[in-house]
């Protein structure tokens, strides 16, 4: 299938040309008329007219010189109008839903030139049959109609991971809008298994975030396609953060920058240390079961109350009445942050998925991707992971000559705990 990349087919070009005359006088010099050539109205539309086997992820691409697009109308072969929204840079109109397989669509684009002339270009194309090639499964870790914490990154995971050469095409089909506006960018893990979206700073409380992962039918690499088109809109709640210091064995709980409470903790013992880094609450369970049979240093099954996950490796804050005598002075857990039953119950009423947890002073560093680790790097490191150019207003300022250089994104840290709680 030749039409494998988004809107890269050649298309016919329609041109309208106009000349405008102009002149000026200065210091009483004789008036002199000069012909000033205006740029011709040059309008190109893709997919190409009569193109076939077009992916259902197709967009109507528009390239215009010497004017601006005035109207774009897309209809299917039954005459039903297809809703579409323009990209921010005006380079294409993106259908609000994936196109249907084996259907014919007509796009009519009208542009107005700098001197008032208009040009209309119409293209008709037919989408491909449903592909038999394997899909890449995507998971959007951002549900709709929820309230999240101010550190909540938009996370999309992929199985199998996205090859580096295909990440730009995938990233172009991931859309985030915020109200009020708080722009950010996407950043990929080195292995392509996850991509995160965040702004330079934490989300402002009350912000509404809308996400679309428009990947259904998108050609990915040579032999895969995207699996689904997913949407979600949620809001950001109050600002809450937790800071855990291994040196003092204390957790400090803040809301809107104000200290609410200090809670004694017991972290991972030397054989199963806790991870140090900036993490995010991922799940909350009033009651769950830790089953570590078959894992190193595991082999136990235990029911726990008021458990809050913050790594994929199995690190939780949870109620641990059996270790209350150690909390505040000795690390005895399998990597989790053990707190008293009363403190765990209180925390469940304060925290939200997406709240920031900072752990410091333990024996190991948090690994990239062990949880939603978008905040465990600086903004300067984070933007390096984008597969597309980062807008100028989001690019970090260059470091002064001679200043220290932060470690590159994706640098390999020390190993971390991989248990399933404890």
TrEMBL record:
GO biological process, one term: cell wall organization
Sequence ranges of Low complexity compositional bias: 400-422
Coiled-coil spans in chain: none
Record keywords, A-Z: Acyltransferase, Cell shape, Cell wall biogenesis/degradation, Peptidoglycan synthesis, Signal, Transferase
Residues covered by the L,D-TPase catalytic domain: 240-360
Biological or metabolic pathway of the protein: Cell wall biogenesis; peptidoglycan biosynthesis
Gene Ontology CC annotations of this record: extracellular region
Signal peptide residues on this chain, from the entry's feature table: 1-20
Residue ranges, annotated region (Disordered): 393-422
Molecular function, one GO term: peptidoglycan L,D-transpeptidase activity
Residues annotated as catalytic: 318, 336
PANTHER family associated with the record: L,D-TRANSPEPTIDASE (PTHR30582), L,D-TRANSPEPTIDASE YCIB-RELATED (PTHR30582:SF2)
Protein name: L,D-transpeptidase-like protein
Species of origin: Micromonospora sagamiensis
Organism classification: Bacteria, Bacillati, Actinomycetota, Actinomycetes, Micromonosporales
């Amino acid at each position: 299938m030749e039409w494998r990349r988004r809107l890269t087919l050649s298309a016919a070009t329609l041109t309208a040309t106009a000349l405008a005359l102009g002149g000026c006088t200065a210091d009483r010099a004789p008036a002199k008329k000069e012909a000033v050539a205006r740029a011709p109205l040059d309008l190109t539309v893709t997919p190409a007219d009569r193109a076939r086997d077009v992916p259902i992820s197709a967009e109507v691409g528009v390239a215009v010189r010497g004017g601006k697009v005035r109207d774009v109308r897309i209809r299917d072969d039954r005459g039903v109008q297809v809703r579409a929204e323009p990209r921010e840079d005006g380079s294409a109109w993106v259908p609000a839903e994936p196109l249907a397989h084996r259907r014919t669509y007509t796009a009519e684009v009208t542009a107005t030139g700098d001197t008032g002339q208009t040009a209309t270009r119409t293209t008709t194309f037919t989408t491909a049959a449903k592909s038999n090639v394997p899909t890449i499964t995507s998971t959007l870790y951002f549900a709709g109609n929820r309230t999240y914490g101010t550190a909540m990154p938009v996370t999309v995971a992929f199985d199998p991971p996205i090859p580096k050469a295909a990440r730009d095409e995938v990233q172009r089909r991931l859309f985030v809008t915020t109200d009020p506006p708080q722009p950010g960018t996407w950043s990929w893990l080195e292995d392509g298994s996850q991509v995160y979206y965040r702004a330079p700073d934490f989300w402002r409380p009350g912000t509404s975030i809308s996400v679309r992962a428009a990947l259904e039918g998108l050609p990915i690499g040579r032999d895969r396609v995207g699996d689904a088109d997913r949407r979600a809109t949620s809001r950001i709640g109050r600002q809450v953060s937790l800071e855990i210091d291994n040196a003092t064995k204390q957790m400090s709980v803040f809301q809107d920058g104000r200290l609410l409470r200090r809670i004694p903790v017991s972290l991972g013992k030397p054989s199963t240390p806790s991870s140090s880094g900036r993490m995010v609450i991922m799940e909350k369970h009033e009651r769950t079961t830790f089953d570590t049979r078959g894992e190193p240093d595991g082999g136990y099954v235990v029911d726990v109350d008021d458990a809050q996950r913050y790594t994929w490796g199995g690190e939780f804050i949870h109620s641990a009445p059996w270790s209350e005598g150690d909390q505040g002075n000795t690390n005895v857990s399998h990597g989790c942050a053990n707190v008293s039953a009363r403190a765990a119950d209180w925390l469940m009423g304060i925290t939200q998925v997406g709240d920031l947890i900072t752990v410091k002073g333990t024996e190991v560093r948090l690994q990239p991707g062990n949880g939603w680790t978008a905040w465990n790097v600086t903004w300067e490191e984070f933007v390096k992971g984008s597969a597309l150019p980062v807008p100028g207003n989001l690019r970090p300022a260059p470091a002064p000559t001679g200043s220290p250089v932060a470690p590159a994104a994706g640098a390999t840290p020390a190993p971390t705990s991989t248990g399933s709680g404890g």
